[in-house]
Amino acid sequence: xxxxxxxxxxxxxxxxxxxxxxxxxxxxxxxxxxxxxxxxxxxxxxxxxxxxxxxxxxxxxxxxxxxxxxxxxxxxxxxxxxxxxxxxxxxxxxxxxxxxxxxxxxxxxxxx
Amino acid sequence: xxxxxxxxxxxxxxxxxxxxxxxxxxxxxxxxxxxxxxxxxxxxxxxxxxxxxxxxxxxxxxxxxxxxxxxxxxxxxxxxxxxxxxxxxxxxxxxxxxxxxxxxxxxxxxxxxx
Lengths: 112, 114
Fold this sequence. Notes:
The structure holds two protein chains of two kinds. Chain A is mostly beta strands.
């Protein structure tokens, strides 16, 4: 019940296209859903996060869509750029004192 | 975003020696810090949760006597890998929680045990 399932495992998108990464969860106690971006050899960087009281959050080219009834959330990267090529992790947490549960990661490659 | 630093960024040591990795939150006080281990092309595996002034809470299967964690101040946590062996070679990443709940990660430390 603590799992967060992430798909796809890898994704190739052309420059300028939209990258979409999906995550699903079972634990209804999860109340915080961040996305992290990780480049090879670096630590994850917080991209954007959402709480279940809103259905969408946008920051620049990055948008989180959240569907509470379906227990799913997704990351959309608009106008994808080669510099966006990285591994993306979704995560979820149940309460501020709890640990993050991570998805398995999606390796995104944006081609020219 | 907030800044979390780690030192060293990479370390090579001989089998049987101990290695200490430092994690600092540079612009906020972190009552809670986390230590993760990451294998190539895999997700992050939580090793332990460190609370300032108290003993760390280790995840199941993580040897607390091998991976010593100290959270001596609100801005510093250390991970010591004792009697390191080649199988301990990995990418270790710390994370700090900025109140109330946002979690920031350090740049990671690449440990190679020969």
